[in-house]
Structures are given as C-alpha cells and as structure tokens.
Amino acid sequence: MKRDYSLAEIAAFLEAELHGDGSVRISGLNTLQNAGAGELAFLANPKYSSQLPDSRAEAVILGSEQAKSFSGNCLILDNPYLGYAKISAWFTTASCQGASIHASAVIHASAMIKDDVYIGPHVVIDAGAKIESGCSIEANSFIGGGSVLGENCQIASNVSIYHDVVLGSRVRVHSGAVIGADGFGFAPNGEGGWQKIHQIGGVRIGDDVEIGACTAIDRGALGDTLIGNGVIMDNHVQIAHNAVVGDNTAMAAYSGVAGSAVIGRNCVLGGDACVVGHITICDNVMLTAKTLATKNITQPGSYSSIVTPMMKTADWRKNSVRIGQLDDMAKRLKRVEGDK
Amino acid sequence: MKRDYSLAEIAAFLEAELHGDGSVRISGLNTLQNAGAGELAFLANPKYSSQLPDSRAEAVILGSEQAKSFSGNCLILDNPYLGYAKISAWFTTASCQGASIHASAVIHASAMIKDDVYIGPHVVIDAGAKIESGCSIEANSFIGGGSVLGENCQIASNVSIYHDVVLGSRVRVHSGAVIGADGFGFAPNGEGGWQKIHQIGGVRIGDDVEIGACTAIDRGALGDTLIGNGVIMDNHVQIAHNAVVGDNTAMAAYSGVAGSAVIGRNCVLGGDACVVGHITICDNVMLTAKTLATKNITQPGSYSSIVTPMMKTADWRKNSVRIGQLDDMAKRLKRVEGDK
Amino acid sequence: MKRDYSLAEIAAFLEAELHGDGSVRISGLNTLQNAGAGELAFLANPKYSSQLPDSRAEAVILGSEQAKSFSGNCLILDNPYLGYAKISAWFTTASCQGASIHASAVIHASAMIKDDVYIGPHVVIDAGAKIESGCSIEANSFIGGGSVLGENCQIASNVSIYHDVVLGSRVRVHSGAVIGADGFGFAPNGEGGWQKIHQIGGVRIGDDVEIGACTAIDRGALGDTLIGNGVIMDNHVQIAHNAVVGDNTAMAAYSGVAGSAVIGRNCVLGGDACVVGHITICDNVMLTAKTLATKNITQPGSYSSIVTPMMKTADWRKNSVRIGQLDDMAKRLKRVEGDK
Hints:
The structure is a homotrimer.
Chain A: E1 5-6, H1 7-14, E2 17-19, E3 25-26, E4 28-29, E5 39-42, E6 59-62, H2 64-67, E7 74-76, H3 80-88, E8 100-101, E9 106-107, E10 112-113, E11 118-119, E12 124-125, E13 130-131, E14 136-137, E15 142-143, E16 148-149, E17 154-155, E18 160-161, E19 165-167, E20 172-173, E21 178-181, E22 186-188, E23 194-196, E24 203-205, E25 210-211, E26 216-218, E27 225-227, E28 232-233, E29 238-239, E30 244-245, E31 250-251, E32 256-257, E33 262-263, E34 268-269, E35 274-275, E36 280-281, E37 285-287, E38 292-293, E39 301-304, E40 311-312, H4 313-323, H5 326-339
Parallel strand pairs in A: 4-5, 5-6, 6-7, 8-11, 9-12, 10-13, 11-14, 12-15, 13-16, 14-17, 15-18, 16-19, 17-20, 18-21, 19-24, 20-25, 21-26, 24-27, 26-29, 27-30, 28-31, 29-32, 30-33, 31-34, 32-35, 33-36, 34-37, 35-38, 37-39
Antiparallel strand pairs in A: 1-3, 2-7, 22-23
C-alpha cells in the first residue's frame, strides 16, 4: 500500500498553511520526540513546546503561535490535534482487504451481499442478513439472521452479531465484541428460581459508531436497544437491554449502562463509570471514572461518586474505618456545637 | 415459525382467567405504551396503571385489582410479570435451528453426539466430548476434549469451552463466554518472577444456568469450580478458580467472585459487586452495586460498601479530600467532647 | 498421556529431600483434605497443619518443620508451594496436541510457519505472520498480518491477534482475549462529534507472559504498547494504547491501565484496580482491589482508595450520606475547637 505523500499533498488535504518545503516526502507519523526523517509529527499540547527545537521530524503540524519560533517545515492549523487525527487515516497499518469472499465462508442463500465487500475465512452469515457496499468482515465472525450492516462497516475477527441487529454506515466493531445477546431478563418464578424472559427486541446502532473489543450490547426485551450516531465505545463496555445512548457519547473501558437507562448526547462516561437502570442522564454530562450514577441527572456538568483520594494502604485503613462512624460523628459534632 | 395464537390458547397455558374475546389473535408482545393491534401487553407495576386506559394493546395481562376498571380483553393472574415471562418463549425471535450438523464442523471421531442436535458451521468439538439430545451449538464455537453438554443446552456463536467442563441440562451460554480457562494461579518463583500453577481441576455447572456474553468461568486449580442449578449470570462476569456459586444466585454485569470463595443460594450480586477470595457468603445475601465483600457474611440481608452519594464533581472534590482527614477529625472531635 | 511417576522421580525433579518410600506411584495432585491413594498433596500454609495427620494422600510436599511430626511419605522443601507449582506441569489435564496443521486452517502463502507447530481447525493466519517452533494455536483463532509468535506460545481457541503484534516466547493467551485492537483514540471534530485517530502503533509482549480470558490489549496510537517479561494477567484485564507494564507485574481480574500510563516491575494490581492515563507507577507497588490510582507513585508500597468497610446497607446509607457533608463537618469541627 502506498504510504508516501508530499507535504504539500497533506497540507492541501488538511487545508493547512504550509511553511517550508512542500516537496518533502512523508511516509509516517510519530510523536515530536520520536519522529525522524520522513515522519510528520504534531504539537497539540503547549506543554510539549520545549521538544520542538530538538525534534528531528521531517515536518510538524502546529498552531500559528508555536510556528512563529519554528524554522522547520510545518503545517499550521487552528487545531493541530484534529489535523493529526484526520491525516492518521492515510498512514493506517491495517491492511485494506480487496473485495472478495473467501471460499470457506458460509453464507446463507437468502443473505443479500453487495459485490464490493470483503468476507474473510470462516465467516458465517445467516439467513436474510444484508451486507451493504464496502463492508469488511474479518475471519471467524458471525452475522445472525436478518441482521443488517450498513455501508462501509468494518467487522474485525471473532465478532458475534446475533439476529435482527441493525448497524448504520461506517460502524467499526472490534474483536470479541458481542451485539444482540439476550438482555439479563428474568422473573422470580415463585419457587425460589428464575423464569427466563425471552428477549424479543433487537439492537439498532447509528452511523459512525465504534465498538471496542470485548464490548457487549444486549438486545431489547421488548423494543430495541438504541445506540445513536457517532457514539464511541472502548473495550469491555456493557450496554444492557433497552438502554439508549445518545449521539456522540463517549464511553471509556468498563463503563456500563443498565437496563432501560437513557444517556443523552455528547456525554462522557469515564472508565468503570456505571449508570443504574431506568434513569435518565441529560445531554453533556461527564461521569468521572468509577462513578455510579444512581439517579436522574437533569443539568449538564461533571458528576462523581465513590472515588476517594489514593493514599498509603495503612493510612487508608485508619481513615476508612471512620466512614462507618460518620453518622455518629456528625451527631456528636452537632451536640458539641449545641453545648456551647 | 408460527407466532400467532388465540388469546384463549395463551390463557390456557398461563392458567389465567380470561376476560373478553378469547378468539382474538396474538402475534406479538409489547409494552402497554407501545402495543398495538395483535399485541399482548402486561401491567406488572401499578405505577403504570395510568397507561391502561390509553393502551391500544389487543389484550393485557394484569392483576385482578387492575382488571376491575378495565373493559378490554385481558388475562388475570396473581403475578402478571411472571405470566409475561412465561409466554415470552412463544414469541422468541431467535430462529430455532433444525437438527443438523454443518459439513464444515470438525468433530473428533471419539466425540459422542446425539442425533437431534444442531451443530453450526465451523464448530469444533474435540476428543471424547459428549453432546446430549436437543443441544444447539452456533457457528465458530469450540468444545474441548472430554467436555459434556447436558440435554437442550444452547451455545451461541464464538463460545469457548475448554476440556473437562461439564454442563447440566438447559444451560444457555452467550457469545464470547469462556468456560474452563486456566485459573489465575502462580507461585512466586523466588527470583522475582512467577511459576505457573497448572490448573488441573475442571468446571461443573448445574441445570438451567444462563451465562452472559464475555463472561469467564475459570477451571479449578485442584478440584472443580462449581456453579449450582438455576444460576443466572449477566455479561462480563468473572468466576475464579474453585469458586462455588449456590443455586439460583443472580450475578449482574461485571460482578465477580475471586478464588475459592463460596457464595450461597439465592444471593444477588449487583453490578460490579465483587467477593474476595476464600470467604463465604451465606444464602439470601444481596450485595449492592460496586460493593466489595471483604469478609464472611453469615446473616442474610443486604450489604454495601464503597458507593457514596453522587454529586457535582466540584462538591465531590471538597468532600472527598476530607476522607483522608477523617481519622484526625474523629480524634479531634473526641478531644473537643472531652474538653467540656 | 502418561501421568504416573514414582515419588523418587518427583523428588529428583524438585530437588527435594525424600522421606519414606520413593517407589510409590503418584498419578495426581490434590489438596491435603481431598487427596487419596496415588495422589500427592502439599502443605504450604501452616494453618492447615492440623489436616496433616488425617490426610490420606500417598505423599505430601511440606517444610522441614512440619515434616518432623509426620511419618508418611513426604518431600521436604523450603518452599512447598513453589514445589507444588513446579510439579503441577507434570499433571496438566490439557491435552498436548501433536505437531500438525489442520486441513481447514487458512494460512496465507506468505506466512512463515515452523514445522513443529500445532494449528487447529479453522485457524486463520494472515500474510507475513511468523509462527515459531513449538507453538500451539487452537481452533478458530486469528493471527493478523505480520504478527509474530515466539517459540512455544500457546494460543487457546477464539483468540484474536491483530496485525503487527509481537509475542515473545512461551506466551500463553486464553480464549476470548484480543491483542492489538485499536486504542480508544478520537479527537473532537469541532462539530460535536469525534474524528477517529487511526492507531498506527503495534503491541510488543515479552517472554513468559500469561494473558487471561477476555483480556484486551490495545495497539499503540504511535509507537507500541509494551508488556514486559513474566507479566501475568487474569481475565477481563484492559491495557490501553501505549501503556507500559513492567516485568513480572501481576494484574488481577478487571484491573486496567489507561493510555500511556507506565507501570513498573513487580507490581500487583488487585481486582478492579485501575490506573489513569499518562501517570507513572514505580516498581514494587501494590494497588489494593478497586483502587483508582490517580497520580504518580514514586515510592514502593501498598496504596488504596475507594474501598470502604462493608456493612449492612441500612447502616451504609446513614453513613454514606454524611460523606456529602464532610467538608462542612470539618469546618464546623474547626470552629468548635477554636471556640474554646
């Protein structure tokens, strides 16, 4: 695959102001500190400005302020980090599979598969599934009956998509992810055990969604689990049945949404942040790492619970045990105040 | 698949009292709010009673109290939710695979496979494994040597079952689940590193167990890891080596049990609730979400740790830092009290 | 497979002092309590000494102190637990696959595969991958283009290894694990959405590493994610892009390392312990279960946060609500003190 461009080509794509020699060839990206000949670096965080003079990068993406004191080849952008993100696609190391269907793939006769797709070895596609143009499905993945992959979806190896799951366009699903497994629905059976509630709903996922490795998105009990456009999910994320995740919300590793909870748009869930079932979180909410959201949030902003300061375990033990005495302490404090 | 029944048929199955027209046809289930023509809804939680008059459901499952003021078709049950759960099986959207073994499956000559099973494409079954009547194993799953699936087990796609794992009857395992991987057993090797302890035990799982997507149940170090009858596990659950989980215990997403811990019967572990190794939890214990159980629990009831009230992050910071001063505060409070 | 040895053979391998009859045959390992005829047990923790007289084990590995009062067959070692760990390899129940490549495996013509490897059914190995001597790759696993498995690696079923991932020698990867998926890298696109940052780096893993089931190790954004020699990871672990984990560090289930964090050597992360991004943890640090490490740690030792004492939920509620009043309480306490 060609991975060698002139700096001028890159400047044009990014609509960046080019200083220096536009004919130099760029064959890779790297950090300011590690970049060498032929590599393009970027300076997004001013705290790394001191690395600029010593960088051996072929060229640097930076802001106009930093550019003033820089004599090397550079691309000037208001948002250098976004520029780096955009150009990263030109240097991906992922092999781009040509359109083909491997002979070992097992595709049901009733599945509808567009011509220009890649379907890898041992992929299995069940009855009535629909794979749109430009999709890529890597080795050993499974697409259940009636499920739909919109245009240009990228499904990595060993992905499991159950029946009646609908993905929009440009959805990327990483290995080990599971979409459409049964929600965790059981009714007490009156005899100490559990009666399974068959999960009749499906999953609908918008466009431009990224789903991390080992992430699980359950199907709805009745009606669908819904993931909006532009949602990004890290690894080990959990989406329970009938949850709703709004457009462009970001979920870090181990973050989870319990059944029927509704998360707004442009929210950020930190690592291991969880939302209990049947509550609503409005748009533009941040939950810091390990927070458990236990009630509706109606005002944008950052919310926290649980996380307490890290300290030496010995100190922690001493303080931690006092938490069990807090109510008593509060009452005693009130009494002492009253006594005066 | 037929999915169209008379209300009278359903009433008979549920042993429900039928009010209205038993000849109406029911082809689906839905919520009170969303149900339309041909759909059966249910009213389990009285707080949704107000939706009853406006529901366009063909019929409703409800309690006798709610039925008094309802003139539509209905099925009266003491426990409408359980009724809904039971009838949900009639409307499952999962395709029921006929008995067949796909030509691409690789089955060791010494494996014993009953006639009426479904084995999907690219399934691999190793030496000496035993698959009982009515089992279904979806695409790309692996069953290790000597493992046993009791009658009517349902194994989804991309499931990994190692060697010498025994499942009872009617066990359902979702995609990405791993049963029988090595427990996390290592001894310090005296030189700063680790000596692996080979995990010689197996896993034994009872009847009517559900195992969620991406859930991992490790094999025992010596002797087996044990999961009782009727246990239900959500996604991302962790069961370490030689743990014991009692009958009908429910484990929500991310809940985990460390090595050799024993969990009683009819317990409920909330999301992310974890139990440390080598302790015992008695029957009928609830651990709320994110609790870390650190010592034996000998009395039934609900236990908590960790979760503190959610608040604005700015407020949290102010309060959280005081946790590190708690021991000091407690001592000062005592001094102030003594001073009087 | 032969699993029957004389006690003398075992003594010689472990360099243990043999008391009793070296000719007895040992065909299995078990605990002191459960061992019977033909089984070797061990006594590592003195608190189980009381089980010694009643044990029906054929022989016992124990320390010299405990041996004094024991008249049965025994192997005396300074570290009986390490002895048990070492000998466990002789009794593994995992079947040792002979060197062979299953006909259904799909191996790219440009992949380099040594002669004495086991490649199971439906394994897929992509262009330019390199599989060294003695490797074993179980059913349905995927090895991406250009990835390298050092000598004697053991890859379980349904493992996903992306392109350009390098494993050292004797790396063991359990089912459902994913190595080399994209790191969670996105830049705000200025329009409320996210611009994906293609993850151009790879993953490099040292020798003698164990990677648990459903564990995810992401590839680097620029440059590699690095896992040292002798690192052991339990199930459901998360390693984000460009993290560095030092030699012999142990990570329990659900522990995670966020992007670009650096963990030292010989650290132990308890279950669910997480490290935020871009910080550094020095060598020999213990993080207790569920701790969130939020800043650099420069001194060896044990650190904690979050975990508070477990109590009845009703008591917890009373105390927990006071955490939101702590800052106020601290100020009032100060005022009361000042008043005197």
